[in-house]
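Feature request, filed as a ticket because there's no other form

It would be nice if the structure record came with a short human-readable summary line next to the tokens. Right now we just get the raw output. Example of a typical job, pasted below so the devs can see what we mean:
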Amino acid sequence: MRRIQQPGTGTPERIQWVECGGRSFSLTLPAGVPLLEAVRSGFAAEGFASGVVKLDGLKLSPFAYVMPALSKTPEHAAFYSDTFWPEGGAGVEVGAMTFGQRDGAPFFHAHALWVEGDGKRSGGHILPDETTVAETITLQAVGLDGAAFTAEPDSETHFKLFGPVSAASSGAGEDRFFALRVKPNVDFCGALESFCAERGIREAVIHGGVGSTIGARFVDGGVVENFATEVAITEGRIARGAGGFEATIDVALVDYSGAVASGRLVRGDNPVLMTFELVLEAR
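Raw output as currently delivered:
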């Protein structure tokens, strides 16, 4: 399996996780409000401080983003490009967001593919502090109760990364959820299949899903060779089949050349590059 040597030392446990309550809800983002504040206030109105959001259809202007890039130093295995501010903003085709806290303040991690004002199709990592909602929209979100995604320094990748931690329960979510972070150099589908099998989860639906893989291999034969990617899950499910658990995960991504791709991940052949955050809803 493909592998990228990280600059630091990892932990034996390759999935960081917290079991918690949660609830799906409709998140309305008003036009003219900075994206981070719009998300924060929408989650707070439902009694949540962390969760995930599906970004399909969101229009943004002004809008700032970065793409994956090669690292110029040995401090990181890959890095970010310079910041882009596309003229006329962008309309998101597909995307996912993890919402939580960083340095004691609200923050999000979001990857998407979009069409920019000049018609260019692109993708990458949306910057929270420089992006504004252009048109009012209602999106689907999941709020977490008893867990929160919090950005903390990661000794393996040398980035500050979102991971789930236990949090006080407010009783705002009644269903059974798991907040997860999958760590580098493990097969993404296989990690989730094993996680469900070990916990007796018969079926799980993926909500959110923001991370990176070492290139990509798709079921239809498509291949992304460039190793540094920014990935959003567009749909995902893990279910017990005749041969055991099987993950069916559709993604959209951009690589460090700016090329975009989408498809269903091949099981057993898509290792995580830096991190992958998501929420599993146990059915």
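Something like this underneath would help us a lot:
The mean pLDDT is 97.
The radius of gyration is 18 Å.
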